[in-house]
Amino acid sequence: MSKVLIVGSVAYDGLKTPYGSAARTLGGSATYSSLASSLFAPTHLVGVVGRDFRDSDLKLLASKGIDLDGLEKVKGKTFFWKGYYKKEDLNVAYTLKTHLNVFAEFNPKIPSEDRSIPFLFLANIHPELQMNVLKQMRKPRFSVLDTRELWINNTRKTLLEVMKKVDLMVLNDMEVKLLTGEPHLRQAASAIRKMGPRRVIVKKGEHGAMLIGPDGIFLAPAVPLEKVVDPTGAGDTFAGGLIGYLARHNSVSLEHLKQAVVVGSLVASFTVQELGAKSIAALTRAKIAKRAKEFYRFASLPLIKL
Ligand code: AMP
Q1: Where does residue 196 fall: left (phi above 0), alpha (psi -120 to 50 degrees), or beta otherwise?
Q2: C-beta of residue 137 within 8 angstroms of C-beta of residue 115
Q3: pTM of the full predicted structure?
Q4: How far is the CA of 145 from the centre of ligand 1 (A)?
Q5: Which residue ranges have their beta carbon within 6 Å of ligand 1?
Q6: What residue owns the CA closest to ligand 1's atom 21?
Q7: 150 vs 154: CA distance, rounded Å
Q8: If both were cysteines, with which of 78, 176, 224, 238 could 264 make a disulfide (CB 3.0 to 4.6 Å apart)?
Q9: Alpha-carbon span 195 to 207, nearest angstrom
Q10: pLDDT tens-digit profile of 230-283?
Q11: Best substitution site from 148, 154, 156, 275 to test ligand 1's pocket, by max atoms within 8 Å of Cβ?
């Protein structure tokens, strides 16, 4: 078993989905992904919160065994994101507000004993901060990068620099197209690989995920759910589950990567079933194992005879 280091946003979210809303609920890319990763391997979170960050939220993260030595609490307000989703397409998040607040001045300091953690997840945050983290690390064994539309549009140059330094990039279909200008997903993924990462995962929401690397392509379907309540955090928990699983097996072999994509899909399927981080915070490996059994029944392709 190895360890995971995650840097990203720790936030309060204002959410509105066709099935519910919350004015100020615990969120953030590092929050979601750490909750997912900690199901599988010891996870250290690096980020910043403001004085308004609730003790109950800190306790929740700590109760999952997440190491919070790298989570600073400073004067000011916690990162705030407000978004909504339309019933017609729950895969698209519409951003109403992004208040960086304490993240505007944040300069991540990785605790010295965390700098040699082998599995690194650069969750969605300003690419400058992602680069600062990379500079402090002692050559991680496996680094995974996430980003989002805002950073692709506004901080493209720095993002391209970060991309040169990571092993795997995880993006959704829209972000891949935005980043490469290439409408065809497979070609877009190849274009991303030319920009740096050896492997790319393209997440296609309810249509599953595609892993593309030098050794070929792997397709994983998404778990077919009766109802999605809130897609927030699906991508973060997919990636958190994936890296946690790799760290648990201390492996980055293609076989483990494929398994990790399946684990990521399973974990994300729980995240979207309740509003905010409620469902990922209540998740256990036993629940994942139970759903995995059903998933394997749906998902296998029969061999055909021609
Ligand atoms: P996703 O479901 O991938 O949109 O991720 C949702 C989480 O990302 C929310 O909990 C937000 O707090 C967080 N988030 C939204 N916008 C940003 C941003 N620009 N940078 C970092 N985190 C963000």
Answers
A1: left
A2: yes
A3: 0.95
A4: 14
A5: 9, 11, 13, 27-29, 81, 93, 98, 124-125, 148, 150, 232-236
A6: 125
A7: 6
A8: 238
A9: 25
A10: 999 999 999 999 999 999 999 999 999 999 999 999 999 999 999 999 999 999
A11: 148
